[in-house]
Amino acid sequence: MTNILNFFDQENKSLKRLGLALSGGGAKGMAHLGILQFFREENVNFHAVSGTSIGAIVGAFYCKGYTPLETLDFFKNTSFFSFDKFSWGSKGLIDSSKFIDDFKKYFPENNFSELEKPLVVCATDILEGKEAVFNNGKLIEALLSSAAFPGMISPMEWNDKLYADGGILNNLPASHIRHECEYVVGIKLQPIEHMKKSDINSTFDLLARVYELNGLSTELREMDHCDLALVPKHLLFVSTFNVKSEDLERTFELGYEYAREYFSAQQKELDNLKKRSE
């Protein structure tokens, strides 16, 4: 890991104009892609990205140059709950290291240096109890560390450390690019609203809800670092763990619809983003 400011200085001596912070949220992350598809069609381009968990993965694909639709295909074609991914007797139901080969097809060099734009990835250092921030070195290990949902996906073990989901301590890492960007857009996938008892039907639903509530105060703090915060309420009842292909597509569409509706009422804001993209 390197100093964040030095990292951006190495990439470009000038201040990055438009930054994007992507929150965690499991399968809800397909809404990130839908929103990015809208931005793509409107010629809004971000110069630097930070992300946690699914937000880090989406950010990596974006910074590599993959389109939102190409990234959606990756998620649709990757077997997240297949038998060979299960981690019998380990620290999670699913072995995080078994996804490395899936990612290498898209990131063959497995290094931050292969990305076209700066990316900051947030994970949690379980042993030291603090944030771990990655911006150079091994890319895939950093992504899998950031997305290792406790109890569900085993922590990543590397660098003599044990890393788990970045959302434990920082689910919307806008602060890590705040001082390097003139304008920061944050996308928070998990609106906290009242739920009925009937909305929680499984252990997965309960875990997701507890996780959302646990990270609320940190997300609100990080939203203060955003010049524009997008919180698509369409996602309230989208399951964090639903990875069926048709549901991923629907969540993608929800993100796209949210962005289209939001910016149809905020044309000046969209024009501002376009100008900063130039």
TrEMBL record:
The keyword Ligase does not apply. The keyword Ribosomal protein does not apply. A motif (GXSXG) lies at residues 51-55. It comes from the Bacteria. This is NTE family protein. A motif (GXGXXG) lies at residues 24-29. It comes from Aureibacter tunicatorum. A motif (DGA/G) lies at residues 165-167. GO terms for biological process: lipid catabolic process. InterPro entries: Acyl_Trfase/lysoPLipase (IPR016035), NTE (IPR050301), PNPLA_dom (IPR002641). Pfam families: Patatin.
